[in-house]
Amino acid sequence: MADAPARAARVLLGISGGIAAYKGAYLVRRLRERGIAVRCAPTRAAESFVSPLTLEVLSGERVYGRSYLSRDGGAGGAELHVEAAQWADLLCVAPATANTLARLSLGLADDFLSTAALMFEGPVVVAPAMHDAMWRKPQVEARVDALSALGVEIVGPVEGALASGERGWGRMAEPEAILEVVCRKLGVPETGVAPPAGPLAGWRVVVTAGPTHEAIDPVRFLGNRSSGRMGFALARQAALRGAQVTLVAGPVGRETPAGVRRIDVVSALEMRAALEEASSSADLIVMAAAVADYRPRKRADRKLKKSGADGLTLELEQNPDLLAGLASLAPQAMRVGFAAETERLEESARSKLEAKKARWIVANDVSRSDIGFDATDNEVVAFGRDGSRVRFPKQSKDELAGRLLELFAGRRAASG
Ligand SMILES: Cc1cc2nc3c(=O)[nH]c(=O)nc-3n(C[C@H](O)[C@H](O)[C@H](O)COP(=O)(O)O)c2cc1C
Fold first, then answer.
1. 204-302+314-414 belongs to which CATH class?
2. Residue 197, pLDDT above cutoff 80
3. Percent of the chain predicted with pLDDT > 70
4. Residue ranges in 241-319 assigned as alpha helix (H)
5. CB-based contacts of 263: which residues, under 8 Å, 6+ apart?
6. Which residue lies with its CA nearest to atom 2 of ligand 1?
7. I need a surface site. Which of 1, 97, 262, 385 has the fewest CB within 10 A?
8. What value does the CA radius of gyration of the chain take, rounded to a whole number of Å?
């Protein structure tokens, strides 16, 4: 088990090709003043307005420029769009041209920025900038509406002097206004010392995420397909809402969300030990990890060898029920479990509520391939100890995490 220190929030800043690109460069500086790490992704057109060298110097980080897909251009075979999307906590595109807005909303992936945007799973902020005649076009409006419907936050544009010398709606929002939205979404305080704001300010939240691996021998284990997405999204969204978050993570290669304390574990027993440490003062504990029910009774010290044609019998023993165990470990906390079911969702969720003395059981149907394990979306039903039943339609795990936390926070009084 290892504690990972909280790190600076990270923004991937897309800059597209308009005069306002110079304000994008200024935004880099303002973000860094707030202690936020920034990597820039200028489009090919943007590089005619602001040089990658300027962005590199201002950000102190590598720039994902036009050379991304060229043979000698720096990618060197690496999937930089994957790297950048996994690195960032938030994607901001400022300025966003009409062209870039359309590509983002249609899901095109024909340059670095659009490809990284399609990979990215966190919050997205977009600041359009264009001539007022372009902004008023129904096709632009349709693209902006589609982005909003996807949960993208659109900042501006505002009315004012346009690059053409005319006045109108289409001028990019001032960098300070964009900065405020970015900081709010990341939960970064204005001065770096103010107490966090948000509906979960003052809450201590513990989230478990990912699978557990139960060792058979030094190289083999019993595991499951949990990707950790749901738990990481819950941790990120709780931190964005001002909570003090501890994430107990099984073996998954995911970035730690900004401002979250992470404890890495491998097996169910390690997860229980981490929970013993983390949960005694928690207000809310969300058990989103897919903990193995069984572990091999014996872990071989050496790699098991093939012997004869008789096959191999593994003897398993039951792991402790971590959620049920929390009833005595953290009686003060609101305890929430996740239940992956393939049939009779409600019946088994309700019996788990009772057996594990949880306040909520969030059930999802893992027999469907478009939601649940390893998928980016999820569709769940939350069953409450008080008999309530709240259905959440299919949506991204990040959005769902936010909605679930709102549900838990709204019903905190009835904890236990
Ligand atoms: C001087 C100049 C200024 C421009 N300003 C804008 C602008 O503010 N907004 C916009 O949508 N397009 C603007 N354009 C057009 C874009 O540069 C053009 O659509 C380009 O293809 C955008 O590519 P990108 O979205 O990949 O950056 C401008 C073009 C020029 C030559």
1. alpha beta
2. no
3. 89
4. 268-278
5. 1, 2, 3, 4, 246, 247, 248, 249, 274, 277, 278
6. 18
7. 1
8. 24
If you count DSSP H runs as helices and E runs as strands, how many of each does the chain have, helices first?
Answer: 13, 20
What is the Cβ-side half-sphere exposure of residue 242, based on CA atoms within 13 angstroms?
14
2-186 against 204-302+314-414: fold identical: yes
User: Could you tell me the residue ranges of all domains in the chain?
Assistant: 2-186, 204-302+314-414
Supply the pLDDT for residue 370: 66
Residue 266 has which token pair?
């491998």
Give the phi and the psi of residue 382 in degrees, each rounded to 5.
Answer: -100, 125
Which three-class secondary structure state does DSSP give residue 100? helix
Regarding pTM above 0.85, the answer is no
CB 117 near ligand 1, within 6 Å: no
Q: What is the CATH number of domain 2-186?
A: 3.40.50.1950
- 230 token code pair: 């749901």
Q: Dihedral of CA 75/78/82/86: which sign?
A: negative
Q: Is the Cβ atom of 130 under 6 angstroms away from ligand 1?
A: yes
Pairing of β 90-96 and β 10-15 = parallel
Over residues 328-342, the mean pLDDT reads 91
Question: Which among 366, 227, 200, 207 has a CA at the least distance from the CA of 274?
Answer: 207
Neighbours of 341 (CB within 10 A): 19
Cα 346–Cα 330–Cα 352 angle in degrees, nearest 5: 15
The pair of three-digit structure tokens given for residue 281, joined into one six-digit string = 């003062």
Q: What is the pLDDT of residues 65-97, one digit of tens each?
A: 877 665 444 555 568 899 899 999 999 999 999
110-138 pLDDT tens trace: 999 999 999 999 999 999 999 999 999 99
Q: Any idea which residue has 């029910």 for tokens?
A: 293
The response to whether residue 18 sits with its C-beta less than 6 Å from ligand 1 reads yes
Q: How far is the CA of 9 from the centre of ligand 1 (A)?
A: 30
Please tell me the residue having the least CA distance from ligand 1 atom 3: 18
Collapsing DSSP to helix, strand or coil, 98 comes out as helix
- Residue 46, ligand 1, Cβ within 6 A: yes
Write b or e for each residue in 312-336: b if 16 or more Cβ atoms lie within 10 A of its Cβ, otherwise e. Answer: eeeeeeebebbbbebeebbeebbbb
Residue indicated by tokens 């990341």: 186
CA of 87 to the centre of ligand 1 (A): 28
CB-CB contact of 98 with 129 (8 Å): no
Query: What residues are labeled active site?
Result: 224
CA distances from 200 to 244, 333, 401 (A): 8, 14, 13
